[in-house]
Fold this protein.
Amino acid sequence: MLLDLAGRHVCISFATKRDPQVEMSLRMMQSIMFDCGEFTHFQQGGTVDREAYYNWLRPMLRPPHWAVVPDRIDGTVEEQRALVATWPFPKSRGAPVWHLGLPISYLIELARQWTRICFGSSQQYWKVGSPVWKGRMHEAFAALEDAGLQPEIHGLRMMNEAGNWPFASVDSVNIARNYKDREDMPGRMADRLDRVNPPKIFVPQRRLITDVA
């Protein structure tokens, strides 16, 4: 699979990493997004070992690669701030996570400090693509637009929505899990996915009402 995807962009999770695959990806891929693995721990239990994560990243975190700053799904703003404060690398190499269940004000706070932010789905916005999820996404992008902020937005688990929002990048496990069942070669799936470009700008629509400020 990796050989057929040579020259592309890939995501490697700290929770499920395999050293030979990491080494191959560093040699062959155009860029790597390193994920802290919080989603895996949220589903299976446990917590991210931040010190081990940072030690793992240290020799690899050079341009053009970047990594997700440790977060806490369903955590409070105070918990997120504390985790972001542990980031030991240049901000240009990291992206904190703003979960849709957190206040818009925290998104604006992050956007004033970081050039790249990950959007994560949480609480009542867990289901990507649901009506309430789309309403919250409109609120988020509208708030960034109103504040005159244009950070690069990465959509976590949002590849199916890539063509609907002005993302800089998205990720999913689509190819890794499904290429054996749906395509002869994973590169063919990647070709199809790469043909979907996001809109260049956010076009405000009718504001949808949600119950989280």
In short: Residues 206-213 have pLDDT under 50 and may be disordered. Strands lie at 9-13, 31-35, 66-68, 94-95, 97-99, 116-120, 152-155, 169-170.
